[in-house]
């Protein structure tokens, strides 16, 4: 197995972290870089465009460091702007060992899944700049892999990721 970076992007509550947790059962030493957890340490409370851009760059540098040390990583990060993901690909500069994975799910389904009530708060104006509500999510135009969590089971989604990684000789 070669180290790799899966850059999991999608709306909040699309299933990014859930898929990564499932992958961790079968991929030894798979590190999860969860955007919510990392934000506490790297970029607390700055959800401006500049803040999001900076947060994404910091996470990309951390992923690159893990790759350099042979640790496969899955980044579970909204990464709302195409520019964020292009910057990550450029910073990491790992060719086939980097894959942008679009975790596709409708806004309506993400809102249904939201156990923290973030979407409801954003709709009431209690959370400003929330991706999908009053801040845009730019869906990938050229994702390496698209996983449809709205219409496929968790097991099928995780298997698609594993098959993709095997196809690139990374598993």
TrEMBL record:
It catalyses: adenosine 5'-phosphosulfate + ATP = 3'-phosphoadenylyl sulfate + ADP + H(+). It is an enzyme of class 2 (transferase). GO terms for cellular component: cytoplasm. Pfam families: APS_kinase (PF01583). Keywords: ATP-binding, Kinase, Nucleotide-binding, Transferase. GO terms for molecular function: adenylylsulfate kinase activity; ATP binding; sulfate adenylyltransferase (ATP) activity. It comes from the Archaea. Residues 3-148 form the APS kinase domain. GO terms for biological process: hydrogen sulfide biosynthetic process; sulfate assimilation via adenylyl sulfate reduction; sulfate assimilation, phosphoadenylyl sulfate reduction by phosphoadenylyl-sulfate reductase (thioredoxin). Its EC number is 2.7.1.25. Pathway: Sulfur metabolism; hydrogen sulfide biosynthesis; sulfite from sulfate: step 2/3. Belongs to the APS kinase family. Catalyzes the synthesis of activated sulfate. This is Adenylyl-sulfate kinase.
